[in-house]
Amino acid sequence: MDVPIEYFVLLSMALFSIGLFGILTRRNALLFLMSVEIMVNAANVNLIAFAFYHGNLTGQVFALFAMALAAAEVAIGLGIVLVLYRNFRDVDVTVPTTMRW
């Protein structure tokens, strides 16, 4: 009983759409980071599904690298959020207009 590849693609498309909606509509920096993570996980679902479908491990290796990249992105993103909160007492991404050039 194999699950068709279309189900994984639909799941990935739904996750990516939810993440994109979160990026476009939210102002909170933490929710922004969570939306980016959802989009990265959507890409990982596609990579793993197509790797399984084609019978090779390349997609799974790329998914592992993407997970490591996502972990580094979260660490740097949380550091930026902490600096944002420390300087402006808010995590709204539209507040720090003084950080522009």
Question: Quick gist of this model?
Answer:
The protein has helices at residues 5-25, 29-54, 58-88.
What's the helix count?
3
Q: In total, how many domains does the architecture comprise? A: 1
CATH top-level class: Mainly Alpha
Number of separate strands: 0
Mean pLDDT: 90
* Low-confidence residue ranges: none
| The CATH architecture | Orthogonal Bundle
Counting copies of identical and different chains, the oligomeric state is: single chain
The radius of gyration is 17 Å
The secondary-structure element order is: HHH
Strand count, sense and barrel status of the largest sheet are: none
**Termini gap:** 58 Å
Shape: elongated
Q: Given the helix and strand composition, which structural class is it?
A: mainly alpha
Measured as a percent range, the helix fraction is over 70%
Q: What is the beta-strand fraction?
A: under 5%
Instruction: Give the CATH topology.
Output: Helix Hairpins
Family: Belongs to the complex I subunit 4L family.
GO molecular function: oxidoreductase activity, acting on NAD(P)H
Pfam families: Oxidored_q2
Transmembrane segments: 6-24, 31-55, 61-85
